[in-house]
Known about the structure:
Strands 6-7-8-3-9-10-12-11 form an eight-stranded mixed β-sheet, with helices on both faces. The chain has helices spanning 2-9, 57-64, 87-101, 107-153, 156-175, 199-210, 215-228, 245-257, 275-292, 303-309, 327-332, 337-344, 351-356, 364-367, 390-400, and strands at 12-26, 29-42, 46-50, 72-77, 80-84, 182-185, 263-267, 295-300, 312-317, 320-326, 376-381, 384-388. It is of the alpha/beta class and 401 residues long. It contains 15 helices and twelve strands. α9 (275-292) links the parallel β7 (263-267) and β8 (295-300). α4 (107-153) runs antiparallel to α5 (156-175) and α6 runs parallel beside α8 (245-257). It is 49% helix and 21% strand.
Amino acid sequence: MANNEVKDEREVLLKVEHLCQYFKIGPGTYTKAVDDVSFDIKKGEVFGLVGESGCGKTTTGRSIIKLYNITSGNIFFKGIRISAGKKMYRDAIAKAKEDLKASEIDKAECDRIIAENKAAMKAADNDQKNCDRAYSRKLVEEAKAEYLPKIEAATGEEKAKLTAEYKNALRKAKRTKLVTQIQMIFQDPIASLDPRMTVREIISEGLIIQGERDRHVIDEKVYEMLELVGLVREHASRYPHEFSGGQRQRIGVARSIIMNPELIIADEPVSALDVSVQAQVINLLNELRDRFGLTLLFIAHDLSVVKYFSDRIGVMYYGKMVELADSDELFLNPMHPYTKSLLSAIPLPDPNYEKARRRITYNPLAAHDYSVDKPSFRELKPGHFVMCNEAEYEQYMKELK
């Protein structure tokens, strides 16, 4: 109980509210890759996101890091809104106009709804456009506060050195974006590395874009990162094709942590690797987490890996979050039929258990009747949420008791 209280008190680093990511596949036709997903990640926490292939896990991660413009919902990072979808506001305006035609509301009410939602759309555009600028201004002020008093007090060579450092820090602060505090480790270690760039160029690219020009500083940071992930300095001059799958993934990890991020999105970082190499990469991520106090969104479909690595787990199915709970709680009391199906698929190195293991098949049409009573995301107990309707909620509460 004490541990839960500590977790609850931690600062929320990332907050995802009603995230929707739709992709157009034809005139007026969309694929709902992510549909109304909400969760938050606390500072220093590892949040696991699991589900079968195609359920929207990777799309969720890519939406958070702004590789996609989100369709609807809000994403807050460090308390600042970095992404806002406008579909919900457009839908509200369209509905108000339809209600006016059907005489369900008067013109004054329709105008009020339209004005409110247009203002919300303008605020969404403003937040997305200016979040990086506001963060950059903050870093510039911090650099001034750190260096200007030192420069004023210094003389001679020391003053020249501090002035050069200040100009470098100022240049980097002006070019830094808030989203660079979020880094991603991609699923395919070879496809995510440019085959025409050396390891040094791959790892240092983020620093150079950020404004770092001192070649000695760049080289030393690259060597430090390589040694940190279990590689050696000599690897810096080589190309990606000269490495094994596990080594390539380590290069991907080094590329992400050199930016000193506050949040890392690890998109199935071990699924393309051998089992023995998987353990090495997971242990590496664990060591880096402890050393740098990293916060991770860990995306995977292997529940046994996620249980070992995550503090909390969210289960996704067909673009929706169907269950969310602490890692131990989810394995102890799985409530949603899909979660039970996933857990039943985990093999154990025990012949007797495997002979008796019964696979649970999840068929949503047979498992749920949502024709009248629609489902919503409900809290069964503190921190344990399940997608269910009223009848299922009552049943789950009886099972918990």
